[in-house]
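2024-03-11 09:14:02 DEBUG pipeline.ingest accepted 1 chain
2024-03-11 09:14:02 DEBUG pipeline.ingest length=239
2024-03-11 09:14:03 DEBUG pipeline.predict start
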Amino acid sequence: MRMNRRQILRLLGSSAFAASIAEQAGAAASIKPDDTSALLVIDVQNCFLPGGSLAVKDGEQVVPVVNRIAKAFSHVVLTQDWHTPAHVSFASSHPGKKPFELIDLAYGKQVLWPDHCVQGTDGAALSKDLAIPQAELVLRKGFHKDVDSYSAFTEADGKTSTGLAAYLNARGISKVFVAGLATDFCVAWTALDARKAGLDTYVIEDACRGIDTQGSLAKAWTDMAAAGVKRITSGDIAA
């Protein structure tokens, strides 16, 4: 079949347009970490993995995803919950209370947890399957006996700094990508505080898993979206 000039031009134009759209879509979906980017790997510890005292469902599934995407980052920070024995966040520290109940503390509402990530125990250790040799900082949080610390930036009282914001600023980091456990607690609080610190913030959904107690997971995503946290997947990151 022979095409006239108008048909040929129309076909070429539509092909070029389609190619342009595809190219733009690919560019939009591909985020390449640079020297101003850091990956924050939150609390991938034995207590939160299968068999742990506060195991997050499917928590072990984040490890291969985190290992893969970490190769794209020259800056990686690992965090550890690092609680004292008889920590204020433990249900066992409050006679008559059970895990997942809420109590009022001086700094606000506190979820009570099973004893977990006690300093120096195997449960507090990072997963042996993490393979991120270039990680340049392991930040321990929650070591003050009378205050919890979900966020990697600020303890639960909302004012005690972990020093992470200053560390990232000193290294010229302006973008953080957050992964780990659990989405609705330590990951979300870290992401929200990263935004408060003025950082472009991404949460890598398939590199996280949630606890989801009393609707906490849906609320966490809503709060993060409202704060300007970007929700992405590991496939959006260019290796």
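2024-03-11 09:14:41 DEBUG pipeline.report The first helix runs from residue 5 to 29.
2024-03-11 09:14:41 DEBUG pipeline.predict end
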